[in-house]
Amino acid sequence: MLSIDQICKIYPNGTHALDKIALDVGAGEIVSLVGGSGCGKTTLLRMISGLESPTRGAVSLDGDVILAPHPAVGIVFQEARLLPWLTVAENIAFGLDHLPKTERDKRVDEALLRVGLSGYGKRWPRELSGGQAQRVAIVRALVAQPKALLLDEPFSALDALTRASLQDHLLALWDAHRPTMVLVTHDVEEAVLLADRAIVLQPRPGRIFADIPIELPRPRDRLSPEFADAKRMVMHALDGSLSQPTPTKSGKATQPAGWW
Amino acid sequence: MSDAGTLDRDTTANARQPGARFAVFSSAFAVGLILPLATAILYEAAFRLGLVQARLLPPPSRVFATLWELAASGELLTHVVATSLRVLSGFAIGSGVGMVLGAVTGSSTAARRFLDPTLQALRAIPSLAWVPLFILWLGIFESSKIALIAVGVFFPVYLGVMGAIANVDRKIVEVGRVFRLSRAALARRVLLPAILPDFIIAIRSGLGLGFMFVVAAELMGASEGLGYLLVDGQQLGKPAQILAAIIAFAVIGKLFDWIIVAASKPFLSWQDTHQRGA
């Protein structure tokens, strides 16, 4: 279980990014973090990945406190971030240096096959489209067989068609080993399509506003009325999170800074 | 090198067939030769027809005859070797120190704050201003020449390496952190390949400056070297010898640069630029 225990993040410049976030994500569960910009979604994800550390509180995976990047936690960023001087196969194998070569090659071939890129192993990243590069980035994180996979708006830079196909790819990959997944997104449809739970965050400082279970069977039909209902529910919570008055230190309510 | 960029951009359409690519390459190369060759031929013709007095600007035939004489007597080789050795020693020292200090200041903010202001102040000094001091300290022979060349090579290499390391994409470095690379592994697997393109450019400009300063060093007093041929040609009124030395400079300068480019090419084929090799 991935457990986030009352974490706060205050940056040295005084920015209060996160305030007492508490969240437990069960093994194999998919949770999406939704929220307006600046609500600390990405900060929270970086905290879970160990790339940043919380000011107070702690993140732990199966009881193991995460203080730095952890072998059992993989992350996929908004950009593919492939290393341009390594071939596609070498990129996928980047985190597998500790394995014997045969095992490494086996996992890489399997991964390429799984995302429909077999035969692309010897290409350079520059020869891939955005969607292909992001698929490589996802399997690069998955071949290390993490217990938890974090995704930071992984499809936001892609066109709608590519995005839909990658969402399906992601679910298929998840199904193979069923890692815990935490997905940051600003796309409500994506959250509802993929997640077992949508966590709506509220900005300034980032807090959990709503925790909405999405109990639709998979594969989910984007056009079904139940899907539309779930979407409406998340959308409604999102609206609420953005129009809530933000408490200040003196306790007085102020409007969100949107006066211009 | 400047012509290679435009060449390859023209040839991308034909890049599928190596033969066609080569044909375009060689015809583009030929286009570049028209101006210098035509100028040389016209001047040669004007000289043969007695239209110009060639005392100060000898015709190409005489320049190449001089070059041939120097080569045949073995004299040219002596001078080329002397000059090359000076450039290479100065280059080795200057680029070596430049790399080390550039790596230190590029990767540590504390070291940059401590060292960089002093080095930038030294960089502001025209390098030739060091000559009298170097001669006083190191004598008039090889050491002072090599020191001058090393100073010339040092700054572009230092600046290039420091800038390259400081500008490595944080996002790429983060990938290394996510996979928990040690400091050494991060340097080897992420930082080195990331800075390589800029590093090659830095040592190429360093080498260029090395050639500039070897001329300065040899003009100031040498008994051999291409710079000596220049001075000798001036003092004895032999412009053909001066031009022959200039041609020799151009050829070995280009040759050294080409060696760096060719040696680095296999490591840079991943680059996403218009100069695609593969």
Report what the structure shows.
The complex is a heterodimer of chains A (260) and B (278). Chain A is an alpha/beta fold. Helices cover 33% and strands 25% of the residues of chain A. Chain A has a single domain (2-180, 193-247), classed as P-loop containing nucleotide triphosphate hydrolases (Rossmann fold, 3-Layer(aba) Sandwich), CATH 3.40.50.300. Chain A contains 7 helices and 12 strands. In chain A, strand 4 (56-61) and strand 5 (64-65) form a beta hairpin. Chain A is globular, with a radius of gyration of 19 Å. Residues 248-260 of chain A have low confidence and may be disordered. With 278 residues, chain B is mainly α. Chain B folds into 2 domains: 1-52; 58-267, MetI-like (MetI-like fold). Chain B is flat. The longest helix of chain B is centred in the C-terminal third of the chain and has 37 residues, at 183-219. The model of chain B is unreliable at 1-16 (pLDDT under 50). The chains are: A alpha/beta (260), B mainly alpha (278).
Write the layout of secondary structure elements.
The complex is a heterodimer of chains A (260) and B (278).
Chain A: E1 2-10, E2 16-25, E3 30-34, H1 41-49, E4 56-61, E5 64-65, E6 73-76, H2 88-92, H3 101-114, H4 130-142, E7 148-152, H5 160-177, E8 180-185, H6 188-194, E9 197-202, E10 207-213, H7 225-243, E11 246-247, E12 253-254
Parallel strand pairs in A: 3-8, 3-9, 6-7, 7-8
Antiparallel strand pairs in A: 1-2, 1-4, 4-5, 9-10, 11-12
Chain B: H1 2-11, H2 18-48, H3 60-72, H4 75-107, H5 109-123, H6 131-138, H7 142-166, H8 170-178, H9 183-219, H10 226-235, H11 239-264
Helix pairs in contact in B: 1-2, 3-11, 4-5, 4-7, 4-9, 4-10, 6-7, 7-9, 8-9, 9-10, 9-11, 10-11
Count interface residues per chain for the largest interface.
A-B, 21 and 19 residues
Largest sheet of chain A: 6 strands, mixed
Beta-strand segment tally of chain A: 12
What do we call the CATH topology of chain A?
A: Rossmann fold
Instruction: Give the CATH level 1 class of the largest domain in chain B.
Output: Mainly Alpha
Assembly type: heterodimer
